[in-house]
Amino acid sequence: MLTAFLDLVLPARCGGCAAPGASWCRACARELSDHPVAVAPRVDPGTPVWSLGPYTGPRRRAVIVAKERARRDLAEPLGLAWAVAIARLRRWSELPEGPLIVTPAPTRTRAARARGGDPVTRAARAAATHDRRLHVHPILSVAAGVRDSVGLSAADRQRNLAGRVGVRADGLPRTIPVLVVDDVLTTGTTARESVRALRRAGFDPLGVLVIAHA
């Protein structure tokens, strides 16, 4: 609550570089508009994975302040960057031209509540305002007892999430392909479990798109 209040009363600072004067400066916007690149995580999700760039500089800072300072204003530039990346992937025939279900990677309910909501979901919904063919449905969830992945090794991350990602999608058509989105790709464990859960539920996940990869 206090950080949200301070963001209202203090002069705007760029969420990517902390420069005063704007919530997102032109230099950071240019860096975030890089072409999506295919990455190969240590844990193979079984689908293509695309990233807007390394987890450094403006991308890293934007992800951190969106989470830790509840910077809701960053949903728009991050969402726009995703919309542009998806348009490019369509042009490259990596994604189809038609409708896509966009589903955020699962997050723990307690963590999302502490952040005032899920910043990944907010960015996905912002992306959908730029492309009417994107339909955002947060259908992935994690079981109770899943630990925060910060500080866990790759093996611990896999044990932590194995078989514990579920899908809640009553009434959602399985005929529309799915794109999973997330803020940061680390080991690829969350991406793999998300893809597996979607396939078990009868969906066709085409890939994973992230803001940054570590």
TrEMBL record:
SUPFAM superfamilies: PRTase-like (SSF53271)
Superkingdom of the source species: Bacteria
Family statement drawn from the similarity comment of this UniProt entry: Belongs to the ComF/GntX family.
Record's protein name: ComF family protein
